Amino acid sequence: MAALIISITVIGIYAARVLTYANVAVRPVWAWWMYQHKALGFIVLVLVVIRAIWNVSRPRPALPAGTSRLHRLIVHVSVGSLYFLMFVVPIAGIGTAFYAHSLNKFFGLFEFYGPVARNVPTMAKFKLAHQITAYTMLGILVIHVSAALIHHFILKDYVLRRMLFTRRADRIGRSYAPLMRPDRAPRNRPGSGDG
Which residues pair with 104 in a beta bridge? Predict the structure, then answer.
């Protein structure tokens, strides 16, 4: 999901900042990249809805033992912010496309125009919201991924594996604990003899 979101953001920046709509000579190329940007953005929105339903229906794996209250708060705020922005960014993008009344193509399978009349002031508001929230989400995502890598390579805990394989998170946590630093390993593991 993270790689897909970063890819979509890069495509959007490339189309908007490098090619630009104002450059008539490359406008067909700009349009092609924007079609991909919009189609992938819609896919992300669908995947986020599915993942949100999945997370609500199943309890999230516990963080490693010894995680401080502040650390847990930061995790909850960052994850909540990411999910909120993963909803808002594509919705703002859809609003931009609809009020621009521009052509939208979904990987060549079908195409359609925005269902509402062109309204430039409203489109501009949606576009600004789309850009601000997209950059904010990208920043939080980079911090989130960096923190996961720090946990994996420096703190030597199982947070990254927990993020990638949530179904087996508890088992991964137990099996990965011997590879952690002694002060980071979960205590009172079954069969550890610690009581």
Answer: 112
Task: Say which residues have a Cβ less than 8 Å from residue 105's Cβ, sequence separation at least 6.
Answer: 35, 38, 39, 111
Number of structural domains (the chain) is 1
Residue 78 lies in a domain: yes
Burial letters 118-150, b for 16+ CB under 10 A, else e: eeeebbeebbebbbebbeebbebbeebeebbee
Give the torsion through C-alpha atoms of 68, 70, 76, 78, to 10 deg: -120
The domain in which residue 118 lies consists of 2-156
pLDDT digits (tens, 9 = 90+) for 7-50: 999 999 999 889 888 888 899 999 999 999 999 999 999 999 99
CA distances from 69 to 89, 110, 156 (A): 30, 49, 20
Quick check: is 173 in a domain?
no
Q: Burial-class residue 85 by CB neighbours within 10 Å (0-12, 13-18, 19+).
A: buried
Question: Where are the strands (E) in the chain, listed by range?
Answer: 103-105, 111-113
Name the pTM for this structure.
Answer: 0.74
Report if residue 125 sits inside a domain. Answer: yes
DSSP-based three-state secondary structure for 103: strand
Whether residue 151 lies inside any domain: the answer is: yes
pLDDT digits over 122-139, tens only?
A: 999 999 999 999 999 999
CA pair distance 37, 143, nearest whole angstrom:
23
